[in-house]
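Why should sequence recovery work at all? Because a backbone constrains its sequence more than one might expect. Tight turns favour small or flexible residues, buried strands favour hydrophobic ones, and helices have their own preferences. The token representation captures these environments compactly. In the example below, the structure is given first.
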């Protein structure tokens, strides 16, 4: 049987008709005969029912077409957004673009993006990295705080359980009241003025959060839009993750270049004091820090002593500390951030000013200390504080800047380099230093004088050489013994080293026995005579305490200058030596300037 009705007497067809199989009686073959379209009845309820059914079907397919068009548009929007996001290689710009797309779609009045911030290993949280429509400052914990410093600590409560699920959700109910009252109160979440939170998930990790405020018409973003928000958040999260890693890799490459440049710069610096200054300066410039200091460990006192400082410190104080003329506080191991780094033998990094002891007038927003280790032993600590930024060509404090993991690794690498270089410089200094007096030795005198004369010859600047001899030194040894002679040498050597002018290249030497020398670059004979004779007068006015006895000491001095008295190393030394003998033969305890040739 088939389902097709025959024609009626009135010429109409019964509906519905279907295709039917027909047999040709002449050939015995069968063929398909397509069904004819049924004609609508000319009158009656059947016609209105059919029209209504067709209209219902038409409305249904129109809705389907609208849904499909919307889905296609959203897919294109996601693809275009993903393409646009992928072309942005700066995290801050990417976040603002992402927020702009979401705000435009829903007319959100404000938005913010918080990203995972693990700058401080002991305090992991999500911090605002970009925002729109919020105040520049927010009220928090009874005080005002920069919006970019607003953070939410990672927790295990209900709010964080929802975040970790990765689904979009509303943080306010229909009455605009917080759904998570405790969290809102504890972390001052009202400052974000948000209605909807969108987790930014990459794999199993929540990279951050997008928060959106109410729409411009005062309504909330409907739940029907959450699926789109989740999709575009997934696209954004992928690009945010890639951009964060790109920026981190760029910083790592920059840090490697910095390490190479610093190593090349300091490789041939053997002077210990100069090396400490250069090392700290390099660290400050590389890490864009406001202030810094370098401490060295004193095994005798078991304390850290500040040797070099850098930053916005009064110039006179800074120079006095760096030249060793001003004593500073010593820190025990474990005391302060630097002491902790030395005791733990690892970097210590704090980016929360509330956890930093504020001891001076200037606020410390962040601090980073790294130990100088050589052979597993602590040589010292480098400490840097606060970040700086360029504003209209000027360097200014950046109160929002923080030291990250890459900064920590760079400072630690610089500290390792410094430890190696300082150990090498210390060994080199020991090889050219007289142990009794602390002055440079004769071997170093010969090479230094040759070098300084070459410089003077090339620059045309004068150079002075003073040769000093302790008067009646043999008498001290014969009368009081060699220990008394050593005491006299040590005292005179200490005062002689202090006679070298601060901020100059003056250098003092023990040439041999009781004979001392001083090279004064860029100094003529008249100026050198004033400086050196002041040392002679100081020696004459002082005494050397030895076993309860006050020993009086005087010195005789001969002075010669290049090129006024000689134009070569040997000739200059001989001219100064002749002047020394003139002082001794003239009664001692006096200074004689070499005679001008001719």
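From this structural description, the recovered sequence reads:
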């Amino acid at each position: 049987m088939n389902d097709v009705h025959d024609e009626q007497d009135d010429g109409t067809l019964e509906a519905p008709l279907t295709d039917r199989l027909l047999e040709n009686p002449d050939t015995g073959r069968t063929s398909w005969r397509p069904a004819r379209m049924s004609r609508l009845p000319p009158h009656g309820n059947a016609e209105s029912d059919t029209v209504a059914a067709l209209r219902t079907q038409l409305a249904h397919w129109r809705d389907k077409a609208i849904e499909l068009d919307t889905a296609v548009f959203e897919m294109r929007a996601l693809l275009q957004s993903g393409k646009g996001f992928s072309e942005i290689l700066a995290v801050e710009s990417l976040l603002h673009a992402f927020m702009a797309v979401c705000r435009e779609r829903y007319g959100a009045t404000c938005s913010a993006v918080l990203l995972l911030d693990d700058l401080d290993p002991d305090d992991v949280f999500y911090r605002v990295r970009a925002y729109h429509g919020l105040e520049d400052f927010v009220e928090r914990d009874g005080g005002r705080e920069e919006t970019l410093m607003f953070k939410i600590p990672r927790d295990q409560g209900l709010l964080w359980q929802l975040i970790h699920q990765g689904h979009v959700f509303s943080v306010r109910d229909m009455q605009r009241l917080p759904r998570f009252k405790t969290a809102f109160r504890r972390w001052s979440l009202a400052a974000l003025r948000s209605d909807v939170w969108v987790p930014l998930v990459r794999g199993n990790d929540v990279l951050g959060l997008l928060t959106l405020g109410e729409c411009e018409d005062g309504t909330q973003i409907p739940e029907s839009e959450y699926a789109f928000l989740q999709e575009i958040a997934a696209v954004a999260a992928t690009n945010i993750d890639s951009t964060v890693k790109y920026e981190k890799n760029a910083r790592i490459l920059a840090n490697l270049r910095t390490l190479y440049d610093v190593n090349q710069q300091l490789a041939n610096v053997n002077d210990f004091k100069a090396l400490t200054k250069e090392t700290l300066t390099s660290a400050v410039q590389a890490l864009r820090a406001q202030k810094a200091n370098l401490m060295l460990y004193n095994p005798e006192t078991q304390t850290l002593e500040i040797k070099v400082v850098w930053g916005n410190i009064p110039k006179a104080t800074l120079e006095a500390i760096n030249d060793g003329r001003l004593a500073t506080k010593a820190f025990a191991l474990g005391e302060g951030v630097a002491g902790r780094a030395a005791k733990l033998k690892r970097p210590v990094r704090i980016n929360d000013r509330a956890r930093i002891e504020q001891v001076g007038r200037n606020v410390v927003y962040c601090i980073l200390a790294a130990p100088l280790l050589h052979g597993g032993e602590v040589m010292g600590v480098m400490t840097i504080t606060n970040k700086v930024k360029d504003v209209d060509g000027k360097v200014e404090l950046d109160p929002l800047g923080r030291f990250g993991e890459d900064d920590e690794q760079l400072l630690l690498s610089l500290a390792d380099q410094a430890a190696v270089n300082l150990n090498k410089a210390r060994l080199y200094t020991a090889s050219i230093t007289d142990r009794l007096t602390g002055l440079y030795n004769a071997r170093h005198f010969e090479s230094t004088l040759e070098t300084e004369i070459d410089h003077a010859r090339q620059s045309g600047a004068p150079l002075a050489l003073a040769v000093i001899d302790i008067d009646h030194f043999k008498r001290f040894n014969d009368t009081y013994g060699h220990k008394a002679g050593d005491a006299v040498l040590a005292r005179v050597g200490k005062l002689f080293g202090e006679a070298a002018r601060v901020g100059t290249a003056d250098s003092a030497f023990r040439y041999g026995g009781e004979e001392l020398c001083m090279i004064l670059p860029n100094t003529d004979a008249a100026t050198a005579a004033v400086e050196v004779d002041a040392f002679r007068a100081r020696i004459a006015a002082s005494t050397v305490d030895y076993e309860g006895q006050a020993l009086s000491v005087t010195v005789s001095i001969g002075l010669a200058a290049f090129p006024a008295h000689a134009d070569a190393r040997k000739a200059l030394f001989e001219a100064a030596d002749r002047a020394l003998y003139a002082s001794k033969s003239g009664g001692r305890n006096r200074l004689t300037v070499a005679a001008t040739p001719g």
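A few observations help interpret the result. The radius of gyration is 43 Å.
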